[in-house]
């Protein structure tokens, strides 16, 4: 049991990079989550502080599989540290999904922030969350993302007002995926069903007629008249927005900012990001740790001079021994860049001469000046 272990031993396990130690720590956490009195014990302020330190150390450098299991175990925990839960909610969607769906720690403000900061996939999970409050519903309607609206239409436990249902039915005129869940929604009224009838397929029309005892003949005549009028009038085509350009980059930058502000962003996080194939996350984290602009880091990564990447690594405290793997992973994710081949990689080792991180950072900024557009 985690409560029976000393604070020092727990923190030592959290800081350890050995898989066996992390497995021991995770199993202890799992035991806590399953323990009858574990929840009440961890609500004690002293235990909360310890738990927050352990979890933040674990989640920042942990492998994906461990973070995934951690999110599943903490999804229903009302004692989980808020900072940790918000960071997990911005992780890859498979990790974030149970947290977004169930965590009692996420409040209205947190959910609305996810709608603004996170990817469409994360927003969809917010819209699917059971018993969504009117505040979150209003934020979803304001965002007007078709895929998220479709998820909201499928959420039969969301607190939708009559005006919310009216708006969803109107939007379904142009978003076909919303029509089926709306036709089955318990809050659909006969008035709204008549409107929905005009833009659904035959099968859904039959379902609406049976459910609300609609006059199919009268509605079909009105539909035919509407079609004829549309053919003689000016043409129009509604365009819906399906995604937001650069949304993943924005979300990753915000995740890095949160970790940096909490003092939990470390060099090992860069290596983890590359191992998971997330070059954008690596770029954002490198910029935050080194005090570089994103454009400077990107210029270094896209150049034919691997010594620039080496200088950036020195600036953030990465050891020489880790650089060959970092360069190889970066090249695989960035179409062979930084270039220079094996000879360039050999020359890059010069950057790891005995210089301070401050000197390396200054040299990096000076070297990329010519590469960054004015």
Structure description:
The chain has 24 helices and no strands. Helices cover 67% and strands 0% of the residues. The chain is mainly alpha-helical. Helix 7 runs parallel beside helix 9 (120-128), helix 8 packs antiparallel against helix 9 and helix 19 (279-290) crosses helix 20 (294-302). The protein folds into 4 domains: 1-105; 107-187; 189-230, no CATH class; 266-371, no CATH class. It has helices spanning 7-15, 19-34, 38-42, 45-61, 64-74, 82-89, 93-102, 108-117, 120-128, 134-143, 146-154, 162-171, 179-183, 190-197, 202-212, 216-232, 247-261, 267-275, 279-290, 294-302, 306-316, 323-333, 341-348, 357-368.
Which structural class matches the secondary elements?
Answer: mainly alpha
* Residue share in β-strands: under 5%
Q: How many alpha or pi helices?
A: 24
Helix content: 55-70%
Global Rg: 26 Å
Counting structural domains, the number is 4
Mean pLDDT: 83
Order of helices and strands: HHHHHHHHHHHHHHHHHHHHHHHH
Tertiary shape? elongated
The count of DSSP E runs of length 2 or more, i.e. the number of strands, is: 0
Biggest beta sheet summary: none
Uncertain residue ranges: 229-243
Question: How would you summarize this macromolecular structure in one to three sentences?
Answer:
By secondary structure, this protein is an all-alpha fold. 67% of the residues lie in helices and 0% in strands.
What keyword list fits this structure?
24 helices; mainly alpha; elongated; 374 residues
Provide the fold topology.
Blueprint (H helix, E strand, L loop, with lengths): L6 H9 L3 H16 L3 H5 L2 H17 L2 H11 L7 H8 L3 H10 L5 H10 L2 H9 L5 H10 L2 H9 L7 H10 L7 H5 L6 H8 L4 H11 L3 H17 L14 H15 L5 H9 L3 H12 L3 H9 L3 H11 L6 H11 L7 H8 L8 H12 L6
Helix pairs in contact: 1-4, 2-5, 5-7, 7-9, 8-9, 8-10, 9-11, 14-15, 17-19, 18-19, 19-20, 21-23, 21-24
């Amino acid at each position: 049991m985690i409560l029976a272990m000393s604070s020092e031993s727990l923190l030592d396990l959290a800081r350890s990079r050995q898989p066996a130690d992390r497995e021991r720590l995770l199993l202890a956490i799992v035991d806590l989550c399953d323990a009858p009195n574990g929840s009440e014990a961890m609500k004690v302020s002293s235990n909360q502080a310890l738990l927050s330190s352990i979890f933040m150390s674990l989640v920042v450098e942990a492998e994906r599989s461990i973070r995934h299991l951690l999110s599943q175990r903490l999804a229903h925990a009302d004692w989980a540290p808020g900072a940790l839960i918000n960071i997990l909610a911005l992780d890859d969607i498979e990790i974030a999904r149970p947290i977004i769906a169930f965590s009692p720690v996420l409040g209205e403000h947190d959910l609305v922030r996810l709608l603004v900061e996170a990817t469409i996939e994360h927003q969809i999970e917010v819209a699917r969350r059971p018993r969504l409050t009117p505040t979150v519903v209003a934020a979803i309607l304001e965002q007007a993302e078709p895929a998220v609206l479709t998820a909201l239409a499928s959420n039969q436990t969301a607190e939708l007002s009559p005006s919310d249902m009216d708006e969803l039915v109107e939007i379904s005129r142009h978003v076909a995926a919303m029509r089926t869940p709306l036709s089955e929604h318990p809050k659909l009224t006969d008035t709204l069903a008549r409107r929905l009838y005009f833009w659904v397929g035959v099968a859904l029309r039959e379902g609406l007629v049976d459910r609300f005892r609609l006059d199919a003949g009268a509605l079909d005549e009105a539909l035919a008249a509407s079609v004829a009028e549309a053919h003689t009038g000016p043409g129009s085509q509604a365009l819906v927005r399906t995604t937001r350009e650069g949304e993943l980059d924005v979300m990753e930058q915000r995740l890095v900012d949160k970790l940096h502000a909490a003092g939990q962003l470390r060099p090992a996080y860069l290596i983890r990001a590359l191992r998971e194939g997330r070059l954008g996350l690596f770029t954002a984290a490198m910029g935050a740790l080194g005090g570089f602009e994103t454009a400077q880091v990107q210029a270094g990564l896209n150049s034919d001079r691997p010594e620039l990447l080496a200088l950036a690594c020195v600036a953030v405290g990465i050891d020489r021994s880790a650089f060959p793997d970092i360069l190889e992973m970066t090249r695989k994710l960035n179409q062979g860049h930084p270039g220079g081949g094996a000879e360039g990689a050999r020359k890059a080792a010069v950057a790891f001469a005995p210089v301070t991180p401050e000197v390396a950072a200054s040299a990096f900024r000076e070297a990329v000046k010519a590469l960054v557009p004015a």
